[in-house]
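Quick one: co-fold with iron/sulfur cluster.
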Amino acid sequence: MPETDSALSTTMTEARRVMEICNACRYCEGFCAVFPAMALHRDFANADLNRLANLCHNCKACYYACQYAPPHPFGVNVPQTFAILRDESYRAYAWPRPLAAAFARNGTVVALTTGLSLALVLILTDSLTAPGILIRAWTGRDAFYRVIPWAAMSGIAAITLLFSMLALTMGGMAFWRESRPDRPVTGRAVLRGLHDALTLKNLGGGGHGCNDRDGAFSTLRRRFHHAMAYGFAACFAATSVAAFEAYVLGLPAPYPWLSAPVILGVVGGAGLLVGTSGLIGLKFTTDPTATAPALLGADLALLALLWFAAATGITLLLFRASAAMGPLLALHLGFILALFIVLPYSKFVHAIYRTLALIAR
Amino acid sequence: MLAAEVETETWDVLVVGGGNAALCAAITAREAGARVVLLEHAPPAFRGGNSRHTRNLRAMHDAPHGVLVDTYGEDEYWDDLLRVTGGATDEHLARMTIRASAAAPAWMTARGVNFQPSLTGTLSLGRTNAFFLGGGKALVNAYFATAERLGVTILYDTEVTSITLDDGFAREVTAVSRGFPLTLRARAVVVASGGFQANAAWMRESWGEAADNFIIRGTPYAQGTVLRDLLGQGVQHVGDATQCHAVAIDARAPKYDGGIVTRLDCVPFSIVVDRDAQRFYDEGEDVWPKRYAIWGRLVAQRPGQIAYSIIDAKAEPLFMPSVFPAIRADTIAELARQLGLNPAALEATVKTYNAAVVPGVFDSSKLDFCRTEGLDPPKTHWARAIDTPPFIGYPLRPGITFTYLGVQVNDRAQVLMQDGRPAANLWASGEIMAGNILGQGYLAGFGMTIGTVFGRLAGEEAARYARN
Ligand SMILES: Cc1cc2nc3c(=O)[nH]c(=O)nc-3n(C[C@H](O)[C@H](O)[C@H](O)COP(=O)(O)OP(=O)(O)OC[C@H]3O[C@@H](n4cnc5c(N)ncnc54)[C@H](O)[C@@H]3O)c2cc1C
Ligand code: SF4
Ligand code: SF4
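Sure, here it is.
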């Protein structure tokens, strides 16, 4: 597609221009990992710019601090330029190639996928189970599987999740091939990268907070992101423990309140709800001058999907002994299925590329 | 607050300007309980004058402190100042400033300014200078936020046109606020409106037409309106209007506000020629930081106020490039054509220079005595033949940092009249009075130190006067 190519090169050209100005200035060196990594270069290849863009956490500190920010004729806007370039890099590294198109109008794609997977789960539950089963109060060890047969549930989950893992891995490898440093990567570098990714060290404006909303410093976004990311991890752990208990130990869901999957799920779900709600709120209240408006849809879509997945999960837990359990379960599984499908084709990929960039820097 | 409401008040302290010196004064006065209004000529996007382009301040310290390593005592600081000014300073005011600088970083931190270790490539300043995290604009942002939080009234887009002095007493202040005239009354007035380097007409008075080719490195709002107004009303001046801090910067820089990225550090490793392709000064006289500030004047004195720094591929990795691309060619003649110079003349200059280079052990990090022999002017250090393509050229023009002409003050930051008496209710801080201490030359980070120390002093004294 020649159109996309020229758009790609425009962003790349702008990113190069901006980095050349920053490199002659360097006033922002203390804010984050981007500037020290930048200072190692005199010229910027496309891969360098992709890596630098993926190092940027969009904290906006360097925008408010920039004496060359618009309306200065130099018009330097690092966070906005890098946000657009990051989005383009998601396309460039997507696997399989044709699905890169999912990153164009990503908000719509994520929303549509969610709608379709909800429909799919509802149709499946309806056609695979006998009439009257869906809406009935089921209790006991294998209650869930009365609503949705075990094979269908685990089969679809496994296939989509494995495919997503594969796609994320392929994307990550493509990114790494381009971004890996010339020198060998030490264990220290890996540990430091993981540490910085897990602590969001660089989402802190050099330690004093970010410009979440405006010129004032705040740590809200970082805290919300932590709630969301660790909530997500806890939910993932809950699912893994549950899968282990079900398939290895032969103890199928639902689990009692005081069991590992439920506790992890509740804590994780709560984190997800708080985190995603907060981040969505910030999206709407932030000063838009340093953001990329075209990417708002993609950001919101993933946040909303995570929110719904968490909300339906917790509701399911609360009402699992009632007649609503069937439809709630179908709904929750619909959102989870959507999440599994869109992971490699959504904003989620930033977690992979950011971590790799932090290791490679 | 609307401009009209501002007029009905009698303010305790009125501050002219919106840079470092003005903000330090306004915050200090407000903290002392005064009701303060600050008038800034620039709109919000360009607030902060030259201060928005800075990166550090020089602070005395008798022990490692925060980002400042080792020690930097009063006497060493004073010696440094004495050396760069060649004695054009006032020891009493200077030592007072130096001593007060020790407390500056803590005061700044408490008002929202953050520091970072010295930037890469500036390790030599890590001991003496504290770098602002994010640079001067971050500092200015922090101060404006603090001033707002404390309740300082701020008017942007407001140029003070005159301060009516009546026998050394400031009666009223007239201004133009977003196109409308404004008259304000205040018990005490602090002027912190910077220099006049952006006032082309005034610069032309001293420099003639050459001034038209000067590039102003910082704010276009440094018009010197208030300075001229005060000097016309019996205020005693320091320095003279022909003095300015001028460095050689990339000639492609924008007319104003190009800031730090237009600087070029290639001179010592190059030969510099004028528009006739002739050398005119020893490029290797001393290490660059010490010679940084003479090249602006040298270029200003050449025809057309333009010069060209010529290097070859060997020299390219040795310096920090400007933001503009290097001009490259495979031959000296082709480079000359691209620079708009006479090819034969440049070839002859390079050839003569190359022939005069004496073999030596080149070392970019110190005075290496690699020199020329029998060349006029000579190149006394870092002289190597320019013989390895690609050949590279950068055009140079004078970049004006600030002017030295200012108002005279005493050690309480009070403005002095021509008869030596202090003006009753007028104080000054920052660039507009820096010439009292920094009569010539420059010491990195000292401009912000003067503005911080005298800003606080002026704010304190003005508030005390107004509240009595
Ligand atoms: C590129 C560059 C880099 C520099 N780096 C450093 C550095 O790292 N460290 C250092 O110590 N110094 C540095 N300097 C010097 C430093 O900028 C000055 O010494 C310092 O900023 C002076 O502060 P000030 O508040 O007096 O003036 P300014 O910061 O220039 O502020 C003057 C203010 O007055 C306003 N003003 C002017 N006229 C009027 C009027 N009539 N009415 C109302 N408002 C008016 C202007 O809009 C402006 O806000 C640098 C200068 C430049 C150009
Ligand atoms: S963002 Fe602006 S201030 Fe920061 S390094 Fe880049 S050019 Fe300099
Ligand atoms: S992480 Fe923040 S400071 Fe660093 S480049 Fe991105 S927006 Fe700028």
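If it helps, Chain A has 14 helices and no strands.
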